[in-house]
Structure prediction request, 161 residues.
Amino acid sequence: MGFSVLKKTRMIDNRENRVSHLIIFYLIIFIFMKKIVAYIRVSTGPEEKQIRIEEQEDAILKYIQQYNKTSGSMEHLELIQIFREYGSAKNPWRTVFNQMINSIKKWHYDKLLSLNESLLSRNPIDTQSLNELLCNWYIEGILMVSSEIYYDKIDRIPQRT
Prediction:
């Protein structure tokens, strides 16, 4: 009788250990995994000033990959969704931009990533929407990849600086 009680106690201890290890594992993932969304836009302006959607996406994916390799902390960026839009940022009623804002408010991503500021907003209404996301803690920050690459108009390939 004593042996079976001891065996049941060990089983309960092992189960509690597994549960506590799982809790710690998920807490680590929650703390160090940063969920991010990306916004990519191609303007309706002159062709020579445009950066194609594919080039912007490649630059953002390379930035995330490089960040995750070289990050001094344990922080890891996880791309959840990419919002792609065609059209001018001067128009404050952009469908995809507003879908992105609503998605961030709903899901509370950690960061928003874009190639540069002018792709996100060129009007006061959208700038206010982005400011609201930051001020109300819907999002921790907005990262710009433009400081990491420059655009070479001659061969249309993003280059490292």
Observations:
- The longest strand covers residues 76-86.
- The helical segments are 2-32, 53-70, 95-107, 117-120, 124-135.
- DSSP finds five helices and six strands in the chain.
